[in-house]
Amino acid sequence: MKTIRVIYEDGAHKWFAIVRDPGRPDYLVDTNEFLVISGDDAILVDPGGSEVFPAVFSALSTQYDPRKINKVFASHQDPDIISSLSMWMEFNPNIKCYISWLWSSFVPHFGGNRDTFVDIPDGGTDILVGSQRLQAVPAHYLHSSGNFHLYDPKAKILFSGDVGAALMPPGEDNLFVENFDRHIRHAEAFHRRWMGSERAKRDWCSRVSQLDIDMLCPQHGAIYRGADVKRFIDWFAHLEVGVLKG
Amino acid sequence: MAMGYEQTEDSGRELRRIVRINEEIKTVVKTAYRINLMAMNAIFLAKRAGQSALGFGVLSNELRRFATDLEQQMLALGQATGGSVSTVTAMVKEARAIKVLERARAQCEGVGKEIIDDLLRRRSATTFSDRRDQVAALNRNLAMMIESTASLVEMGGVLARSAKIEAAYGGSFSQSLKQVSSDFEGTISEIRKSLDCLSKFQMREFAA
Ligand SMILES: [Fe+2]
Ligand SMILES: [Fe+2]
Fold first, then answer.
1. Does B104 reside within a domain?
2. Is there a contact between A49 and A27 (Cβ–Cβ < 8 Å)?
3. Burial class of residue B85, CB neighbours in 10 A (0-12, 13-18, 19+)
4. Which residues contact A179 (CB under 8 A, 6 or more apart)?
5. For residue A109, is the peptide bond before it cis, meaning its omega torsion is within 30 degrees of 0?
6. Domain range holding B42?
7. What is residue A35's three-state secondary structure?
8. Alpha-carbon distance B14 to B58, whole Å?
9. Would you call B97 and A86 a contact, using CB atoms and an 8 Å cutoff?
C-alpha cells in the first residue's frame, strides 16, 4: 500500500500526496499522485496507471471517500498518468477529466466517454475546485507536446508533472528533497532525455520563476520545497535538454 | 473472492477458443475454393470426354455449387464468431477490471473495503451474467451453423462418391475422371476433418 500524507492544510482546503509503494513490482516506474480538496469538491491530480490503482485507491480511501472525486487532472497522456481513469470512473461515472485538447481523443482508449473530457486550450485554463481557483499552467514539450502543470496560488503549490522528476534508487524514499545536490543527480539523465525542447524549457523557467511557489511537486521522486524550488528552476534553466546521450 | 481471477481465465479461454474456430474456418474456406477450381476443371474434362461423361459433368456442376454454398456457409460462420469476439473482449475487459478491484479490496481497510464490496456486488449481479448469457446464445447459434454445415459436407461426400462411380463409364477418359473424383473425395474428407475440429472447439463449453 502507498502512503498518503497531508502536505498542505488550511481549513477545508487540503493537498494530499500519495507516494511510495513498497509493494510495487520493480518493472513499474514509481509515481506520486495528488489529491486537492476544497470543501466537498476534490480533484485527483495525475491519478496514475491502472496497475497501481489498488495501492492509490486504498491509501486515498483512508482519508477521503473516492466516490466524491468528481474531477481528474491529467498533465499529459502517458499510461503512468491516466491509464487508471476507467477504474476511478467505476466509483463515479460522472468524473470530468481535464486534459490538453491534444489528447482528448487519445486518452478515451484508457476509458471515459464523450462527456468525460474537458479540453484544456494551449494557453491554459482555470479549474475551480470548491472555493479554490487552480490554474492549468502550459508546459508543452516538457516532455509531452500537450502538457500542463497545476498551480494552486493559495497553497503556493505547483504540481509539475514529469518536470522535476527523479528516478530514486531503492531505499531513498524521503517525501521531500533533503539534499538538493545529491538529489538532482537522480534527475539529470531523466531531464536530458525526456525533455525535448530547449526553447520550451526556457519559456517555462521564465514563467514559473514569476510564480509564488512553496512546494514544487513532481510526478516521480521527492518534493522540492522552500529554497530548493528556485534551485531546481535555475538548475533546469542551465541544463542542456533534448540530447540522446550524456 | 477468487471470482475475478476465474472470470479472467474463462474469458481468456473463450477468446482463444474463438480464435481457433476462426483459424479452422479459414482452412475450410481455402479448401472450398480449391474444390471450386477442381470442379471447374472436371467440367471441362467431362465436356471433352463427351457423351460418355454426361453424368460426371452433371455431378461436377453439383460439386461446384456445393463449394460455393460451403464458402457462403463459412463466411456466415466467420461473421458469427466475429460477433462473439467483441462480446468476449468486453468480458475480458470487465473481468480484468474486477481483478484490479479485488486487488484494491485486499489492500483496503474499513470504508474502502465496503465501497469496493458494494461495487462488486452490483457488478456481478448485472453486467457479467448478462454477457455470459449473450455468449451462451452466440455459442448455441454457432453450434447450429456448424451442424448444418456438417450435413452440407455429407452431401458433398455423396456427390464425390457418385462421381467416382460415373468415372467408370468415362470410356478412354475413365482413368483421368477417376483421378479427379478421388481428388474430390480426398479434399472433402479434409473438410470433414476440419469440421470435426470446429465442433470439438465449439463443444468445449464456456465456463467449464
Ligand atoms: Fe510522462
Ligand atoms: Fe511520468
1. yes
2. no
3. middle
4. none
5. no
6. 2-203
7. strand
8. 43
9. yes
Which residue of A23, A66, A87 is in closest CB contact with B97? A87
Q: Model confidence over B126-156: pLDDT tens digits?
A: 776 777 788 788 888 888 888 899 999 999 9
Q: Would you state the cell numbers that stand for residue B141, as one nine-digit string?
A: 447459434
Range of weakest confidence among A137-151, A225-239, B56-70, B87-101? B87-101
pTM: 0.82
What is the distance between the alpha carbons of residues B16 and B92, in angstroms, rounded to a whole number?
Answer: 11
Is residue B208 in a domain? Answer: no
- Number of compact structural domains in chain B: 1
pLDDT at B88 (0 to 100): 81
Give φ, ψ of A148 to 5 degrees. -135, 145
Measure CB to CB from residue B115 to each of A1, A54, A67 and give the nearest one.
A67
H helix or E strand, kind and range, residue A127: strand A125-129
User: Has residue B160 been placed in a domain?
Assistant: yes
CA distance B63 to B67: 6
Which region holds residue A113: left if phi is over 0, alpha if psi is between -120 and 50, else beta? Answer: beta
Q: What's the rounded Cα separation, in Å, for the pair A135 and A120?
A: 11
What's the pLDDT at A120? Answer: 98
Q: Are A83 and A52 in contact (CB under 8 A)?
A: no
Chain B CA closest to residue A58? B108
- Can you give the CATH number for the domain in which B45 is found? 1.20.1270
Is pLDDT at B160 greater than 80 in this prediction? yes
Domains defined along chain A, listed by start = 3-238 (3.60.15.10)
